[in-house]
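R.M. (postdoc): so does anyone remember the format we settled on? I'll just put the structure tokens first.
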């Protein structure tokens, strides 16, 4: 299969966003990556607009779609620990902090997945 671009769009709370990922051999994992990037964008827009709970939902949907960080012997993955800390902040009544951390982790994981797939997040 030759290089191609995968486009996905996601929506949450009335806000939508799209993302494109270029990969040498695009497939299901590339589609999931593009979807997760779109969810991260939706989450950022929701958070900026004050829709904190919807931003958390978007972040979680993106995390669910992209999955755990791919294994790399060169990297220590502390994203699960940070997600637990975000859940603690949310439980303590600091939902905006939790949303910010969750979206940061989603962006870290999408970057790691792009690297593992030798893919480029285009838009």
């Amino acid at each position: 299969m030759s290089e191609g671009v995968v486009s996905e769009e996601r929506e949450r709370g009335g806000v939508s966003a799209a993302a494109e990922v270029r990969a040498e051999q695009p497939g299901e994992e590339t589609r999931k990556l593009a979807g997760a990037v779109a969810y991260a964008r939706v989450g950022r827009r929701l958070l900026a607009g004050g829709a904190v709970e919807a931003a958390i939902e978007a972040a979680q949907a993106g995390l669910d779609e992209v999955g755990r960080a791919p294994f790399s012997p060169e990297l220590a993955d502390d994203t699960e620990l940070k997600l637990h800390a975000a859940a603690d902040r949310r439980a303590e009544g600091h939902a905006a902090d939790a949303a910010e951390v969750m979206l940061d982790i989603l962006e870290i994981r999408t970057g790691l997945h792009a690297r593992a797939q030798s893919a480029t997040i285009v838009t």
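R.M.: ...and that's the designed sequence above, right after the tokens. Also worth knowing: The beta strands are 4-12, 15-23, 120-121. Residues 4-121 form one domain.
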